[in-house]
Specification:
mainly alpha, Leucine-rich Repeat Variant, 4 domains, two-stranded antiparallel sheet, 30 helices, 4 strands
Length: about 575
């Protein structure tokens, strides 16, 4: 069955006589094919003609539908008069009904429009939604402003986490694209409206039609710390408008995103993956934000943004590496180049491995990010030739990252070197070498505190199969040893779903696990609950809150409170299927 976006695009393409529409980006990083193809010359002609007509009406003292001589009063005491600026028409003073959005239409026609909007908002009938969309678009073409008034008033009917939101946004964008009063209405709503759904709808629609004239309003909304969940929608609009200078100015605002809201950060990362729509000059600015960023949780936004440029970014980042003696900067550039995962990236990093001999460890990390098996012989050669322990350790971890079992014999001889022993144990365990799991768990459970800490940190690098092994091992061990492995399982940013039932089994085993073990399990559950990475649901924590002993209840209250604070107002939910 075709998706709503595919059906919608088919409808639009048919109406436009077979022309295709560009993609626009939403906060989930989804490319939607129902974006507006704006004809610049057509837009200029339309706006100039409409502006001349409006000015003539004003000169003749004829009242227009939203242009009057005396500014009307509003219930919120907002000014309904604003100066609409557009480079093609200059400035026009307009009065926009922001507060009431009252259409000048017959009751019968209003009822017809409202019923169509209800049909379009129906999440259970795609055909009905599409047919209503087409009917509303036709009505709006003949009476744009009044239909827009009703659409905004009735936007409350739409589930903004549902695919029907695309229909709503595309409808408003279509009606406003070549209509001066419609574009003025979007600017007015962004300028003054206190209704969040109206603001969100106007932001998304303005992005679709690439309305650069609303950039000041976008910046004003994004800087409002009380509405930081709208930053993502503002960023989405900037990406869709595709104004590089505006994007450069917007970068510092990203730092206002709060820590702990994984959903917002995830949405920002997905939108950043489309930064390639901007000019190459944007690359240096994103890179500077990355290396100056002191908030670790924001760095993936910038790094994914850089990787989105693909091979366009490689020579620029390579020059940054050559001109820097800062190992942190070189490591960041190297990892981003590697993350582009192109043969050109591999070739460039191999060249830099020779050109920058004092930065080999950092460049090897970049080669590991390529996941390119063609780089494995170079890594092995580097391991065998270097005398520097740090470079050896980095080579071993890189080979383990994307090598296979055939590399195990070459790594084993480094087991006798205390400088590389732990890396080799990790590598052999990851590669699946026979008996390597016994070696790994023995060192994890019985090694020195330093060795245990190192291997615990390596756990965050393990693939799913090994993480499941760790969880299964924890289930088999006495509580004191289980605690060590549970502590390690708190390190990764994602755990395979299969770990959830194993944790639940450990939580409910007989005899009952000790308080520290149960507390550690609750912490792991809380780290991922409510996200796409969820292992066990919130119900497990809530049930435990009712039955656990007082010392554990206090920890549970903290975990649940942290989870709920992350889930509070923070961007639009993921689309429902």
């Amino acid at each position: 069955m075709a998706t709503i976006s595919e059906l919608l695009n088919q409808k639009i393409v048919k109406q436009l006589g077979g022309s295709t529409s560009p993609k626009y980006i939403d906060e989930n990083g989804t490319e939607n094919n129902s974006g507006m193809e704006i004809d610049v010359l057509k837009l200029k002609r339309a706006l100039v003609e409409q502006a001349e007509a409006i000015r003539k009406e004003s000169d003749d003292n004829i009242l227009g539908d939203i242009f009057v001589e005396i500014e009307p009063e509003t219930e919120t005491n907002n000014s309904s008069k604003l100066m609409y600026q557009h480079p093609d028409v200059g400035g026009i003073e307009v009065i926009v009904d922001i507060d009431q959005l009252i259409p000048d239409m017959s009751d019968e026609l209003i009822e017809k429009v409202v019923n169509l909007i209800k049909d379009m908002a129906d999440t259970n009938n795609q055909k009905k939604s599409l047919d209503a969309y087409v009917a509303l678009k036709n009505l709006g073409n003949s009476d744009t402003l009044n239909v827009l008034y009703i659409i905004f008033r009735k936007s409350v009917l739409f589930d903004f986490s549902h695919y029907t939101r695309d229909l709503l946004v595309t409808l408003v964008a279509n009606l406003c694209a070549y209509n001066l009063k419609g574009r003025a209405l979007l600017k007015g709503i962004l300028n003054q409206s206190t209704v969040e759904k109206h603001v969100e709808l106007a932001l998304r629609s303005a992005g679709q039609i690439r309305a650069k004239e609303v950039l000041p309003e976008i910046f004003s909304i994004a800087k409002n710390e009380e509405k930081n969940h709208l930053i993502i929608i503002c960023l989405e609009a900037i990406v869709n408008i595709r104004d590089t200078e505006a994007a450069i100015q917007f970068l510092p605002i990203i730092s206002n995103l709060p820590d702990g809201n994984n959903r917002l950060i995830g949405q920002a990362i997905k939108v950043a993956k489309h930064f390639e729509v901007f000019e190459d000059s944007f690359i240096e600015h994103v890179y500077n934000e990355l290396i100056q960023c002191k908030k670790r949780y924001l760095r993936p936004i910038y790094s994914e943004g850089l990787k989105s440029f693909g091979v366009r970014a490689i020579p620029i980042l390579a020059e940054f590496m050559k001109s820097s003696d800062d190992h942190f900067h070189i490591r960041q550039c190297s990892k981003i180049i590697g993350g582009i995962k192109s043969p050109i990236a591999s070739e460039q990093l191999r060249k830099l491995l020779v050109d920058l001999p004092h930065s080999q460890a950092e460049i090897i990390e970049g080669l590991a990010h390529t996941k390119d098996v063609e780089n494995l012989p170079y890594l092995l050669e580097c391991l065998q030739k270097t005398s520097r322990p740090h470079v050896k350790r980095t080579c071993i971890k890189a080979i383990a990252d994307f090598g296979d079992i055939s590399y195990a014999p070459a790594l084993k001889k480094y087991l006798v070197d205390p400088e590389t022993e732990l890396e080799v144990i990790y590598a052999l365990f990851r590669l699946g070498e026979k008996d390597a799991d016994e070696l790994f768990f023995d060192k994890m459970l019985n090694g020195t505190p330093h060795e245990q800490n190192r291997l615990e940190n390596f756990t965050s690098l393990l693939p799913s199969k090994n993480l499941i092994q760790v969880a299964k091992k924890a289930l088999m061990l006495p509580d004191m040893d289980s605690m060590i492995l549970l502590s390690a399982l708190l390190k990764p940013n994602v755990l395979p779903k299969q770990v959830g039932p194993l944790l639940n089994e450990l939580l409910n085993r007989e005899p009952k696990s000790t308080t520290p073990v149960r507390t550690s399990i609750y912490r792991i559950i809380g780290k991922f609950v409510g996200s796409e990475k969820e292992l066990l649901g919130m119900d497990v924590l809530v049930k435990a809150l009712r039955t656990e002993e007082p010392s554990v209840k206090k920890e549970l209250e903290n975990i649940i409170s942290a989870v709920r604070s992350k889930g509070e107002s923070g961007g639009i939910e993921k689309y429902k299927d």
